[in-house]
Design a protein that fits this description.
Strand 5 and strand 6 form a beta hairpin. About 25% of the residues are buried. The chain has a four-stranded mixed beta sheet with strand order 2-1-4-3, with helices on one face. The protein has a four-stranded mixed beta sheet with strand order 6-5-8-7, with no helix packed on it. A four-stranded mixed beta sheet has the order 10-9-12-11, covered by helices on one side. The protein is rod-shaped. It contains eight helices and 14 strands. The chain has four domains: about 55 residues, Roll (Ubiquitin-like (UB roll)), CATH 3.10.20.30; about 55 residues, Ubiquitin-like (UB roll) (Roll); about 55 residues, Ubiquitin-like (UB roll) (Roll); about 80 residues, Orthogonal Bundle (Lysozyme). The chain has about 280 residues and is an alpha+beta fold. The longest helix is centred in the first third of the chain and has 14 residues.
């Protein structure tokens, strides 16, 4: 009777399998009589959730010495350059999770360390990629490679002062996408009268300089698309050189000058002023 019991124990023991179960990189030794991966995991107290990755597959047959790897899914709420999406990843480190999502912000800014852990409960992660942004402020022309979150931050990084009343486009709190051109202009505190704005300013500029905002005539000297002298430009509240500013700024200053002259355009544009009335 004793010999028979020992024989049974020997047979049963021979049916047991020694399996290594690795969960998120942490191995554990499991001795099990189970025939499939799913059953072995059950014996090991490892439950599976949607999105988890199991190798070999859960229905695969297990033999002695088998190795089972389980990578648990984690939810990441990812915001890249202001755009938010949600993803399931199985990586346990932030850098690996970004690689899994095919995001490589090597030169950017990440809200968590690349070697930081991605908890099983999930996490929020913010990434700002490095972008090329251009700044135009009077004679200042800058290219910035930046991870800034706002236009305001770009200007602060470049020591561009924005004084009260100055116009900034895009707005200071907007997100500077790759290729954004940021313009900073002096304040437009004086409104342009509708009848002045309605004059043919393109025709005047075409006559004066072929409409070239960077025009320069050393005889005056005269600058910009409306052939401003520096004295008249400053009279109209302009800063720096007229030719340093975009067309919209030059047009505003020309219209403002016309108003200040009471419509007497002959003193500023004697050869071309009549084109305003085409």
């Amino acid at each position: 009777m004793g010999a028979a019991a020992v024989g049974v124990l020997v047979v049963v023991s021979s049916l047991a399998k020694d399996v290594t179960v690795v969960v998120d990189g942490r191995p554990m030794a499991v001795r099990s009589f189970a025939g499939s991966v799913r059953e072995v995991l059950g014996d090991a107290g490892v439950s599976l959730s949607s999105g988890d990755v199991v190798r070999p597959a859960a229905q695969a047959t297990v033999s002695d010495g088998s190795r089972i790897e389980v990578r648990r899914a984690r939810l990441i709420r990812l915001t890249v350059d202001g755009r938010t999406t949600t993803h399931m990843v199985t990586s346990t480190r932030v850098g690996d999770a970004l690689a899994e999502l095919d995001i490589a912000p090597a030169a950017g800014k990440i809200s968590a360390p690349r070697d930081g852990a991605v908890p099983l409960s999930g996490m929020e992660l913010t990434v700002y990629t490095r972008r090329s942004v251009y700044v135009v402020a009077g004679s200042t022309r800058l290219t910035s490679r930046t991870t800034a979150r706002t236009v305001r931050e770009v200007l602060r990084q470049k020591d561009i002062a924005v004084r009260p009343g100055y116009q900034v486009n895009p707005p200071l709190d907007s997100f500077p996408e790759d290729g954004t051109v940021i313009t900073v202009r002096p304040p437009h505190t004086t409104p342009i009268q509708p009848d002045v704005a309605g004059l043919d300013w393109p025709a005047l500029a075409e006559c004066e300089t072929d409409g070239n905002p960077e025009a320069y005539d050393p005889d005056g000297p005269y600058y910009g698309m409306y052939a401003f002298s520096l004295r008249m430009w400053q009279t109209a509240g302009g800063a720096g050189l007229p030719s340093d500013w975009p067309e919209e700024e030059q047009t505003y200053r020309a219209q403002l000058l016309y108003q200040q002259l009471g419509g007497r355009w002959q003193s500023q544009w004697p050869a071309c002023g009549a084109h305003l009335y085409n």
